[in-house]
Amino acid sequence: MYSYVGSSPAAQVKVSDSPAYGKLPPPAVEKKGVMVYRAGERVGFSELKHHVGWMEKHPSNGCVYAAGSGKLRAYKVAADGMLEEFSSADALGNPAHFCLSADGAWALCANYSASTLSVLPIAADGSVGAATDSKHHVVRLNPQLADRQEACHPHQVRLDPGSGAWALACDLGASRVWVYAFDVARGSLAGAANSERHLLLPEASGPRHLDFHPAKPWVYVLCELDGNIVGCRWDAEQGRLTPFGSYYTLPDGVSPWPCPPL
């Protein structure tokens, strides 16, 4: 019934080359919270004490979850669509993205600046518990790419929609897609940093997001820095990605980064 848009400082910075620059009055006060819409119309603003980034609706308990100021936060939804926070837990970093398991028992967080992935439990009452597992990524990187790739930067984490047995995380800084086995009973991630399951992409590719094809065993990885979408075959039994093609997405006349072929 409702749509939610989280606010953050980045969304409220005055950018001179923005299409709206100079056309809208600047906000008198920096807003922290969530804009609430229904049928395309704004119906209110849930003002909170922190900024809100990625948001997801729980598959069964009616609550909404959001990443905000280093924590995963749980909200109850009022009849008018407004949100009321009732629980939170440390995400072990600053989550740029998180996903909920199909059974709603776990939240997996990708913490961009902290270079970590974390797993947090969601109790029967909807509250968020302390992390049950985490992974911290450190790899050797090219110093010439230090403007955006000075460290590992997990930007998204997804569970495979078939079995939920694998967690895939795009790392913009390391130009990798980390692939870990996910134990749904314990809320743990299994796999070494040098596992052959991890997909190493060309330098300066910067994978940001991925998505699974709804019907075929294919995964598409969006690379922010070189403008490519990398198509991969997905082996759900082995947890392996095998690239089969790269598709350049930017307009004619925009040159890609000089990346070697897959």
From TrEMBL:
<dbReference type="InterPro" id="IPR015943">
    <property type="entry name" value="WD40/YVTN_repeat-like_dom_sf"/>
</dbReference>
<dbReference type="InterPro" id="IPR050282">
    <property type="entry name" value="Cycloisomerase_2"/>
</dbReference>
<dbReference type="InterPro" id="IPR011048">
    <property type="entry name" value="Haem_d1_sf"/>
</dbReference>
<dbReference type="GO" id="GO:0017057">
    <property type="term" value="F:6-phosphogluconolactonase activity"/>
</dbReference>
<comment type="similarity">
    <text>Belongs to the cycloisomerase 2 family.</text>
</comment>
<dbReference type="InterPro" id="IPR019405">
    <property type="entry name" value="Lactonase_7-beta_prop"/>
</dbReference>
<dbReference type="Pfam" id="PF10282">
    <property type="entry name" value="Lactonase"/>
</dbReference>
<protein>
    <recommendedName>
        <fullName>6-phosphogluconolactonase</fullName>
    </recommendedName>
</protein>
